[in-house]
Structure formats: C-alpha cells, structure tokens
Amino acid sequence: MLHADSRVAFALLDRQHAVQRTGELPLAELAAAVPTSRVEGILHPSDSVLTTVTVPPLPTHRLQAAVAGAVEPMLLGDIENLAVAHGARAGDGSVAVAWAAREPLARALRLLADSGLPADALVPAPLALPLTDTGWTVLVRDDHVVVRTGAQTGQVWAIDPFATTDADPAVAALLPTLEQDAPGAVGWIDPQPAGWPELTGTERRALPAAARWQGVLPGWSLALADLQPHRSGRSPWRQPAAWAAGAAAVWLLGLNVHAWQLGREEVALRQRMATQVKTAFPDIPVVLDPLRQAEQRRDALRAAGGEFGSSDFLPLALATTQLLPAATNNVVALRYAQGELKLELVDDGIGMVAKAGAAPAPAPQQQATRGLRRFAPRREQAAAPAPTPAPAASRMEIDPAIMQRAEGLGLHVTHDDGVWTIRSAASAGQDGGARPASQGGGVRIQQDNPRR
User: Fold this and answer.
1) Could you tell me which residues come within 8 angstroms of residue 50 by beta carbon, excluding any fewer than 6 positions away?
2) N or C, which end of the chain has less CB nearby within 10 Å?
3) 381 φ/ψ angles, rounded to the nearest 5 degrees
4) Which CATH architecture best describes the domain 308-352+396-428?
5) CATH fold label, 134-210
6) Is 351 helix (H, G, I), strand (E, B) or coil?
C-alpha cells in the first residue's frame, strides 16, 4: 500500500521529454526535492487492466455509457467499484479502455496531493513506455512483463517464479504471444533477458534504461475528475488563468498607451485650431472653444448679409476679373494688403497699348534745377523762339478701354514695372496730380515722374 514514506521511482523531464534526472525518494520528500509543473503517475502493472472494446458510432456524450456496457461482462465485481477511463473511438470502432479499483485510486490521488504532488494524469504501465513504429516495447518490472503494442494498446504478463524452463522467465512469459503475433521488432529496455530465442522476422533492439520514462502518454487517464481531491493550492486552470491575466495586462497596457497618444494628438489639434481661429478672427480676445467660437463668428458674418467693403479682397478680386478678362490663366503672382490688390501677369503687354508722342530734350538749365522749372508770362512765351522739335518716341500706356471700364467699376488702376495695382476709387488718394497753372508769371513746382 502506498504511504507517505514509500520510496517511489521518479524522473524529471523537460519540455522535449528528455530525461534530466532520475532516482528514488520517499514520497514525502519528493515534492521538495524536485520542482514540478505537471505530475504524471504511472500505475503498477498489477494495479490496472488495459484492453480494447468495440462500440458502434455514437455521440460523444453517449460513448461513456456504451463503453461501460461493453466492459461490464468482463468484470467479476460491480462496475460502480471501479474507475473506468477510455480513449476516443477509432475508425474500426475500437476503443482503448482501462480500469482500476476506485477506492485505492482515490486514496493514492489524495496522498499525492497531500505530499505536494497533485497528479494531472494516472496511466496504466504499458502506455508509459515509448512507442515504436513497427514493433513492441518491452520492460520487465516487479515480476511482470510490460509491453506496449500500439499508441493506446498494451499488455501485461506475470512471470511465473516456479516455471521450469531453461529460458529466462520473462522470455518464457512473452514467447507465446511473440510467436502468435510476430511483431517486426522488439525493443527491450535494459536490462535485457538472457537466452533470447531466434524468431524469424522479429528484430531485437536494445533500449536504454531511461527510455522507460519517455513514452508519449495518451490524452486520457484514470485520474478522473470525481476522484480528484480538492486542490487548495493548485488548480488545473491556474496556468490558463495566468496566461489570460498576462494577455489582459498587455491589452490594458496597449490601451493606455493608445489613449495617451490620442490625448497628445487632441492637445496638439486644439492648439492648431486655436491658432487658426485667432488668425482668422484677430478680434477674439481669448480662444477657449475654437470650434464653437469659429461657428459663432461664421454665423454672425452670415447674419450680416454677406456685405463687404469696397476695399476688401473679394470685391476687388471679382471686379478685377471684369476689368482684365485677358488676365485669365496668366497670373504669375497676386498680393493683397491694406485695400490694394497687386497682380503680376505672364505677359506685360496685356492691357497695354503703344502710344507715340514727342518728348523734348531737357534744357541744361532745367537739368540743373533738379525738377524746378521757371515759366515766363505768356507775353514772354509768345516772343520766345519756338523750340526745335524732337523726334517722336514710343512708349506703353494702359488701354483707354480699360481705364474707362475701371471708372465704370469704381476702381483706380495703375501699371508700373509690369505690376498692376488696383484699388477702390473711393479709397484712392489724389497724390501725384498736377495743379492748374496760374495766370500770372511765377514758379510752379511739380514732380517729373509722378507716382500714384
């Protein structure tokens, strides 16, 4: 009977099922000596029965009852006293089944849990051996021959200690089955028996002692849920819950980082909006809600009827399109400042006409006076000899039709060095105009090149 001081064989495996450590320790000391994340128990060969039954195709929730019905005729006692576990139904209808005494199994699970080794699985001894592709795997343990014959099948034979034969007792126990089934290979885990007979078509292979721990266990076991004790310190859901908690923490961290980035973008957007509103409406003293204040100012402008002053940009631009229709698609630069619109066109000749006129050469006295001219009385002018006519010179001036159109549109237009200057006639000054001449003699002062 298993108890806390029982010495049990153990093996510590890594995730690749490589053996890291083996030995024997009392059950009470094993949990402290060996760190574990999953505990899988291997039953003694005599503690369980492994066989195969055939059941019809049934839904999963009815398979357990069908297996119990197929197993019950094989039992000598009551099935309620047994723990029955089974695998999935194969294509040929076969189902691997194992059973063991219910009460000893529950007691063993409680003892393992109390020792700090809560069992995740309890498997029959044959299913713990390594699986070979074309043969069997054999292990001799405690007067039993344990054989794994397939992924979910295996057999156990007891060695007769009183057998009178020259062959090894283990070989003698296994030989009838070997002669009947004749597997392609038999892998014998050390120590190998003596007196192995020569079997036609069966290859004998030697396996290391550590191979007994490296079998791939099936997905089912005798550690049934109703036999498991209450696990106060460890739950089968602990690891999935830990992974879920970690994923939730990463998700929450990502949400917080994303919210922080959105907050920064919101602050930057509000600052840009406030700057744009302040630029568009400089008369607003403080910008608290850019969107609402901009909407209010827009609505106020709409309520004003959309009226503009004659010197505003939009009226000047619309009037310019009527004044210079030939400038369409020919504008190089456009500037507006303080009620004045300046245009630079691709062709300086647009809106200009050539005009021939005589320009007398300036007299030396006139050049010396730097723009000051002395006009004699009319009688003196009549007596003076007529000046020699100068040759005619050609120069460009604004088309009179444009000047007439500008007058009708209420605009004041000038052209200087290829730049058109357009402003409202109401706001245009009268600087640069010549005053009328006096009737008597005297000195009149004016600019040689008047600027507008």
Assistant:
1) 96, 97, 98, 124, 126, 127, 153, 154, 155, 156
2) N
3) -65, -35
4) 2-Layer Sandwich (3.30)
5) Nucleotidyltransferase; domain 5 (3.30.420)
6) coil
